[in-house]
């Protein structure tokens, strides 16, 4: 269940980041409510994952994969550019997260 909790936390993290863009500085009610609920859900499910994972592993994977997912969806939803340098950076983040997963005991 630990990795499932972390996966759900990552989805909440991506929703939080994308929702923050839609709040327009927290001036729009429903996007703001959505964003705050996503943030709370992400922190809660991350805390469940951290019962078993080291915080260094869990938090790094949460922010790394969440960040990469946010960039990918930002490109799709908001037409943000993905350059070769960004792709290399995302590959490094994903590679580091996978290495953390493989070496986590």
Automatic annotation (TrEMBL):
Domain of life: Bacteria
Sorted UniProt keywords: Cell membrane, Membrane, Transmembrane, Transmembrane helix, Transport
The keyword Nucleus belongs to this UniProt entry's keyword annotation: no
Subcellular location: Cell membrane
TM spans (from-to): 29-50, 57-78, 84-104
Cross-referenced InterPro entries: EmrE-like, Small_drug/metabolite_transptr, Small_multidrug_res
Transport in keyword set: yes
Family: Belongs to the drug/metabolite transporter (DMT) superfamily. Small multidrug resistance (SMR) (TC 2.A.7.1) family.
Name of the protein this chain belongs to: DMT family transporter
Organism: Streptomyces toxytricini (Actinomyces toxytricini)
């Amino acid at each position: 269940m630990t990795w499932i909790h972390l996966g759900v936390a990552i989805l909440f993290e991506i929703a939080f980041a994308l929702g923050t863009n839609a709040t327009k500085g927290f001036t729009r009610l429903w996007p703001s409510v959505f964003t705050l609920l996503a943030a709370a859900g992400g922190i809660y499910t991350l805390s469940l994952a951290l019962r078993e994972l080291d915080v260094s592993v869990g938090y790094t994977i949460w922010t790394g994969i969440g960040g990469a997912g946010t960039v990918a969806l930002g490109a799709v939803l908001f037409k943000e550019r993905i350059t070769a340098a960004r792709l290399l950076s995302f590959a490094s983040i994903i590679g580091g997260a996978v290495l953390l997963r493989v070496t986590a005991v």
